[in-house]
Write a structure and sequence with these properties.
Layout: E1 2-5, E2 10-12, E3 21-29, E4 32-40, E5 47-48, H1 51-67
Antiparallel strand pairs: 1-2, 3-4, 4-5
Length: 68
Amino acid sequence: MKNKNSNSKKLKCLKCDLLLEEEKININYLKSTFPVELLRCPKCGLTYVSEELALGKILEVEETLEDK
């Protein structure tokens, strides 16, 4: 994924060269499912997870589930 224009914050799929679209998807981890809205390529389905989300909320959920 690359940032098309740093001012517009529109991201494009490097593989398909299409703008990513917001889509509700399910994330599965340790037999638990979480619905989230993420950016996804409309053609190949590749999903973009920002570093902020991966190191923030997702990491917090992983740690909570692993402690159970």
